[in-house]
Design goal:
The protein has 460 residues and is α/β, with parallel strands linked by helices. Helices cover 44% and strands 18% of the residues. The protein folds into three domains: 152 residues, Nitrogenase molybdenum iron protein domain (Rossmann fold), CATH 3.40.50; 224 residues, 3-Layer(aba) Sandwich (Rossmann fold), CATH 3.40.50.1980; 31 residues, no CATH class. It is globular.
């Protein structure tokens, strides 16, 4: 393998920069027809057959054999045991991360999670009632790796919002054997290689029920409900192409958080941050998968050279170097801008998931930046801190959707209802207005419903 990474080198001074940037940003959201067809069949089958279909697909895709879906549920005692079994350092890290995530989302609850009401001059009450969702489903990826951080980022804000029940689904990374015992009814329980960190995180976050199922069948079970798995009001959490396709299809039956694309990082650098730091930050997203995107914008050509040299030197040391190389060479770029102002303008066009302002005075540039899932200010603020323990949510809009979408938060686990209590005086004031507009729309019953309140109650 060649030591040099062939990452694209662009300049805003070139005539075709806009075309090059558009090509770099391009990522097809079109789903594979075979994936869509398979997901459609799985959803329909789970909706029709419930537990039986879940068991069949779990055995086929995850290699987990069980005689009932109840055997795929992880007992609360196992969550508690996992919390006791992990190392003290791991437990301390999980608890510290959870505490910071909880503290941030409690502030979020204070800022936007409360209802309000007021009475106007005629005594009419108007307001907004905020209520938590009754039950939510959290999908935690687990097919290739374990993600306790993803669990915390989904479950903690749901708990802070006051969700009544959190149901988690997660495929087991490595299919294990099936052993008898535990239920008292002759059922068999799964003894796969569940991640102790994920189970411990579930205990810390207060997850109510955990099922070791994944894929489209898990999404279907949460959306429609089965004999064992309860139907939820909303499904959050990332997954593979099958999970994303399933979430897209069940939207309307349940709420979903978002359909996420490949992970992204964009770094705005003024040349004052050590090049090794920035190179590793670019790696931090590139190591997710080959379609992840890492872009560096800087007005300093010599600095771009230094970062390229750091990339070439540091990459061979990393275990996931092949994935990082494919990501950087396929969708990465080092971009020379005329100045930092232009770099901010380009960033707004890209609307990245993660945006690092790696500069001596990040507060100077932050007001110019309008579109990003999360902003990381200053050289010491690595994106990885946001992924794990800074506090704000790491579930962020991708693929330019930061132009109109927000990070996952407490508000995603609540709904809002309008409050209207019209007084008699208010009915006399508002009735003619409503009736006039209703007659204009040709809706006679609407108009008369308002006008009836204008008469004395005895006359009615």
């Amino acid at each position: 393998m060649s030591a040099a990474v062939k990452i694209a080198r662009l300049s805003t001074a070139t005539a075709d920069f806009d075309r090059q940037l558009a090509r770099l940003q391009h990522w097809s959201e079109d789903t594979d027809a075979a994936v869509e067809h398979a997901v459609e069949e799985i959803l329909a089958d789970v909706r029709r057959r419930g537990d039986a279909a879940v068991l069949e697909y779990t055995a086929r895709f995850d290699g987990l054999q069980a005689t009932s879906v109840a055997a795929l549920e992880v007992p609360k005692a196992e969550l508690a045991a996992a919390l006791q079994a992990i190392t003290p350092a791991q437990r301390n890290a999980l608890e510290a991360a959870a505490a910071r995530i909880r503290a941030f989302h409690e502030r979020q609850l204070e800022a936007c999670g409360r209802g309000f009401s007021y009475r106007d001059a005629d005594g009419t009450l108007l307001g907004q009632k905020v209520t938590p969702l009754t039950r939510v489903g959290i999908y935690v990826p687990g097919g290739k790796a374990a993600y306790p951080s993803s669990l915390l980022m989904n479950a903690v804000p749901a708990k802070v919002a006051g969700v009544g029940e959190i149901v988690m689904v997660a495929p087991t990374p490595v299919a294990g054997s099936v052993a008898t015992g535990g239920s008292g009814r002759g059922e068999r329980s799964v003894r796969g290689e569940r991640s102790p960190l994920v189970l411990a995180a579930a205990a810390i976050a207060g997850v109510d029920r955990v099922f070791t199922i994944g894929g489209a069948q898990a999404v279907a079970a949460l959306a429609y409900g089965t004999q064992t798995i309860p139907r939820v009001d909303k499904i959050t959490g990332p997954g593979n192409a099958y999970v994303a396709a399933a979430k897209r299809r069940v939207f309307g039956q349940v709420g979903i958080d978002m359909i996420a694309g490949p992970s992204e990082i964009l770094v705005l650098a003024d040349g004052t941050t050590p090049p090794d730091w920035v190179a590793m930050d670019l790696f931090s997203q590139a190591e997710h998968d080959e379609l992840a995107q890492s872009i560096l914008l800087s007005p300093d050509a010599a600095y771009l050279d230094a970062v390229q040299a750091a990339i070439d030197r540091l990459l061979p040391e990393l275990p996931r170097r092949d994935v990082i190389r494919a990501s950087l060479e396929g969708r990465g770029a080092l971009v020379l801008t005329r100045n930092m102002e232009e770099a901010c303008e380009i960033s707004n066009r890209i609307a990245p998931e993660h945006l690092e302002i790696s500069a001596r005075q990040p507060e100077r540039w932050e007001p110019l930046l309008k579109h990003a899932g999360a902003l990381f200010l200053g050289a010491f603020t690595s994106e990885s801190l946001g992924d794990y323990c800074a506090g704000p949510n790491h579930v962020l809009p991708t693929s330019g959707t930061a132009r109109f979408s927000s990070p996952l938060g407490v508000y995603d686990f609540q709904k809002r209802s309008s409050l209207i209590e019209v007084s008699e005086a208010g009915a006399r004031k508002l009735g003619p207005v409503a009736a006039e507009l209703a007659y204009g729309e040709g809706l006679q019953a609407h108009a008369q419903a308002a006008e009836l309140r204008l008469r004395n109650r005895e006359a009615a």
